[in-house]
Design a protein that fits this description.
This protein has 210 residues and is α/β, with parallel strands linked by helices. Helix 1 runs antiparallel to helix 4. It starts with 18 loop residues before the first helix and ends with a helix. It has one domain: 3-Layer(aba) Sandwich (Uracil-DNA Glycosylase, subunit E), CATH 3.40.470.10. A six-stranded mixed beta sheet has the order 1-3-2-4-6-5, with helices on both faces. Helix content is 42%, strand content 12%. The protein binds iron/sulfur cluster. The site of iron/sulfur cluster has 15 residues, from helix 4. Iron/sulfur cluster binds next to helix 4.
């Protein structure tokens, strides 16, 4: 028997002309107390997102790590340190991009978010994208690519090619690449080259779109 759909999350109104305030309201009035899926039961706290509310580049990952859950900030720990290095190599800083995850509560044992969890939390991510209005989205990891793009293929089949986000605030070009958490476990020359190629494509697109 198919699982019953999880309840829809509630979204507060945008704060007209103030992206930072809109993000704050979304976090404080909706996400931080959300119990729409069972992931809420295992969290220390929600991990909403961070960075520039007007960023040209938004980076979307799968879900909070243990370090994220502990600190309340996305992309912490070894994977976050690698992401910071990647951003630095691109001439960017964490504070100059916007970082978010598909789900805002840590899945147990660092597993990928399940489809129903990603669907339940997806409304928050869509609203974040709408508020920030990035010129380019970089998804890191398979679940993030699937949720943002609505595709079913594995990350190896979609990475390295431009796709398009058509949700609220779209269309926005999307480049899927490997998750830094995966890269820390499979830090091969080939994987590093693939990711660097993807990041170079993002930089070129940002320059074109600017
Ligand atoms: Fe709510 Fe998202 Fe947390 Fe599920 S993962 S409880 S939908 S905030």
């Amino acid at each position: 028997m198919p699982l019953a759909a999880l309840p829809e999350v509630s979204l507060p109104d945008l704060v007209a002309g103030d992206a930072a305030a809109s993000l704050r309201v979304l976090d404080e009035q909706a996400v931080s107390g959300c119990t729409a899926c069972h992931l809420h039961g295992g969290r220390t706290q929600t991990v909403f997102g961070s960075g520039d509310a007007h960023a040209a580049l938004m980076i979307v990952g799968d879900g909070p790590s243990a370090e994220d859950d502990h600190t309340g900030q996305p992309f912490m720990g070894p994977a976050g340190e690698l992401l910071d290095k990647q951003l630095k190599a691109m001439g960017l800083e964490r504070s100059g991009v916007y970082l978010a995850n598909v789900v805002k509560c840590r899945p147990p044992d660092s597993r990928a978010p399940k489809a129903d969890e990603a669907a339940a939390c997806g409304a928050y991510l869509k609203r974040q994208i709408q508020i920030v209005g990035p010129r380019v989205i970089l998804t890191v990891g398979g679940p993030a690519a699937k949720r943002v793009l609505g595709v079913t293929q594995n990350i190896t089949q979609v990475r390295g090619q431009w796709h398009r986000y058509d949700g609220p605030g779209g269309p926005i070009p999307v480049m899927p690449t490997f998750d830094p958490a995966y890269l820390t476990r499979a830090y091969t020359t080939e994987n590093r080259r693939r990711v660097w190629d993807d990041l170079q494509a993002v930089l070129a697109r940002l320059a074109d779109e600017g």
